[in-house]
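Side project, low priority. Logging it here so it doesn't get lost.
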Amino acid sequence: MNSKLLHILQHSLGLDEYGRGTFYRNRFVTGEGSTDHPLCMELVELGYMERFAAVELFGGSDAFTVTEEGKRAAVAESPAPPKISRSKQRYLDFLAYDGSMTFMEYLRWRDYRDRRSA
């Protein structure tokens, strides 16, 4: 699958460029004459999307949803995420932590927690 088709599937499902995410949406709206419409039609032909033509709610544009086969393809065809360093992973963990600590406080707390559980 080419990168443009993969991007449309990922975007439709709310996935990142590596196919990670929670499928929090399932739609892509575009109209005839746009650059994305022929790509969506190609995905329909492949069985990866369904088309709902001229949806009034979307101003007459077509709405597309991803099929179960398209969901599997979006995940399977997405590239693997790059490896990240240990220090960057610690910082990403800090960003995901929903607390009021500074980064240094978080590192001390994390080290303390890890020592206690070992």
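Brief comment: The chain has a mean pLDDT of 95.
Revisit when time allows.
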